[in-house]
Design goal:
14 helices; 2 domains; Aspartate Aminotransferase, domain 1; 458 residues; five-stranded antiparallel beta sheet; globular; 16 strands; Aspartate Aminotransferase, domain 2; alpha/beta
Length: 458
């Protein structure tokens, strides 16, 4: 049906029937994507675009093995009960080994249904039942989901609200950003300095009679600007939080399942001596099919069970979703996508580092500061000393890349960080093409033509 409608007619119908707060990419000239395969997307005219954005299609758009698994399972509905028992068990079993030897106690899974927002909302419930406390510590610029409980802990969203509407039980710690943050790469111990900020928040909360239920953070901040915390940060935060009676929740929704290359889970970048109490996952788990999960220690899970309220989710653990989740894990292993993320990520970062030498607009692409594996950020700045964010320039780069059939987006508190989170089937040749086009755009953008273009579009 979508192919039969003219793009302008499609846009008109969207404006008429879709809520105005549902934003659209490239609003000045939207794309009409009608199909996708691997790391490529195709518009209604058959033009191919390289997708450098879509971390949801983890193993590639419309991967045939994943599609086949879902289709075959739908045909087996008469064996639903047997499939439910088998497939609910196998994804949980499959998830355990990559958590690491010291994380084997993270053994109990809740297949939480349609979205990662459900997973993070459930994680908060688990933490509060286990601790008997209510206060939550989150990171500045964090985003954890769209339901009310998660908007409260998502400064990326609630910064837009008046102070009076913010939840008094939510406390915001500085983002552990060693490029732009309060403590930077030249600090003698940035990990401790940022962790001490969390300790001080706990102390202030206690002075006001609060009690900490949880500290929640993405293992690498995504919407916050592709932030990689300094090693040792989470260990020290965990010690402060657990001493206060709280638990640590690692949000792996955007950065888990091998995206960082060297490890299956991004929290493992901190070292073997850090294991969260609760891990949440979603999006890539089903390669776009709605599937999410919460993994917790037996102690946390048993406390939740003892509250007397059973956990039920209409769609949680349904056989079709579970079959698709298993297929995603199988494809990752068969095609060595974690290894590919490591190899191509290193290649991509090298190429981008070379661009930094050519283009003053690029502030940082250090693998230690702005990404790992196929989770890479390119921060654009007007001045490398003051770090004045090049927000308008970043948007112009994105728009021009679209004209070159490269899809990229920007994020961070200033929307000046170009973010690479492509499907894990992204190749070295794709990286070559993307960086070639970035070079082309930045070369054409320096200096007068770019300034003129910005004034024309403002």
């Amino acid at each position: 049906m979508s192919e039969k409608l003219d793009k302008n007619r499609t846009i008109l119908l969207r404006k008429r029937h879709v809520g105005p707060s549902c934003k659209i990419f490239f609003s000045h000239d939207p794309l009409k994507i009608v199909k996708a395969k691997g790391q490529y997307m195709y518009d209604e005219k058959g033009q191919r675009y390289l997708d450098c954005i879509n971390n949801v299609a983890h193993v590639g758009h419309c991967h045939p093995d994943v599609v086949k698994a879902g289709a075959e399972q739908q045909l087996r509905v008469r064996w639903w009960a047997r499939a439910r028992r088998r497939n609910q068990r196998e994804p949980a079993d499959s998830l355990k080994p990559p958590l690491g030897k010291k994380a084997t106690f993270l053994a109990l899974c809740y297949l939480s249904g349609l979205s990662y927002s459900e997973a993070n909302d459930l994680a908060l419930r688990l933490a509060r039942h286990f601790t008997g406390h209510r206060d939550v510590i989150t990171l500045d610029n964090a985003y954890h989901g769209h339901v009310s409980s998660l908007i409260d802990i998502s400064p990326y969203k609630h910064h837009q609200l008046p102070d009076a509407e913010r939840n008094p039980y939510v406390h915001v710690a500085p983002s552990p950003d060693v490029y732009r943050g309060k403590y930077r790469a030249d600090h003698p111990d940035a990990a401790t300095a940022y962790a001490d900020e969390v300790r001080d928040i706990i102390d202030r909360a206690h002075e006001r009679g609060g009690k900490i239920a949880a500290f929640i953070a993405e293992s690498l901040q995504s919407c916050g600007g592709q932030v990689v915390p300094p090693v040792g940060y989470f260990q020290q935060v965990a010690a402060h939080v657990r001493r206060a009676g709280g638990v640590v929740i690692a949000d792996e929704v955007q950065v888990g399942f091998g995206r960082v290359g060297s490890h299956f889970w991004a929290f493992q970048l901190q070292g073997d001596d850090f294991v969260p109490d609760i891990v949440t996952m979603g999006k890539p788990m089903g390669n776009g099919h709605p599937l999410s999960c919460v993994v917790a220690t037996p102690e946390v899970a048993e406390a939740f069970a003892s509250c007397g309220m059973e956990y039920f989710n209409t769609f949680g653990g349904n056989p079709v979703s579970c079959a698709i989740g298993l297929a995603v894990l199988d494809v990752m292993e068969k095609e060595d996508l974690q290894g590919n993320a490591a190899r191509v990520g290193r290649h991509l970062t090298r190429l981008l580092a070379e661009q930094k030498q050519k283009h003053p607009l690029i502030g940082d692409v250090s693998v230690l500061l702005k990404g790992r594996g196929l989770f890479v950020g390119v921060e654009l700045v007007k001045d490398r000393v003051t770090l004045a964010p090049a927000t308008a320039e970043a948007q112009e780069v994105i728009n021009r890349l679209k004209e070159e059939k490269i899809l990229l987006s920007a994020d961070g508190p200033h929307r000046n960080v170009l973010k690479f989170k492509p499907p894990l089937c992204f190749t070295a040749q794709d990286a070559d093409l993307a960086v070639e086009k970035i070079d082309l755009v930045l070369t054409g953008a320096s200096p007068a033509p770019f300034a003129q273009s910005l004034s024309d579009t403002s």
